[in-house]
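Researcher: Please predict.
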Amino acid sequence: MKKVRTTAPFANGNKERLRRRIEAISTVGLLLIAAGLMAPFAAVEDALIAGICKWVFAAGAVIYTVARMVNVNDPGDSLKLRRLRRMEMWAGFCFVVASGFWFYNAHRLAGIVFSLPVMNNTIVFTLAGAMIQVISSWMISARAKKEKGLD
């Protein structure tokens, strides 16, 4: 019988390596989201910095969401663990909606460089995404320990 070798990163038990790569990519996305969200507060009246930060935030949101859409589940994972990993994707959707609101409100309120009306919805959806991410991370960690019998 002939063995078939594949070079795909998720084949032949390399899910753990893929999972680590995806975690690193999603962490970069979260760092871009944080940098994009914090910089306008440092330079409140600078339109150029606000515009750059808007794009950095959007790039981070897209990177995070795409990374979370990649399937990193092992075939032996429980349904609950799979659903928890899918929940992280919803955090990414919150970040993308927050980015959309930032672009929409900046266009709608074009005369205002940076104020609460421009950032209000962005901050709310970013906090919602962050809450989903934190809760799902804790629950995934606890569930994975429980399934491995380390608890």
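Model: The CA atoms of residues 73 and 79 lie 10 Å apart.
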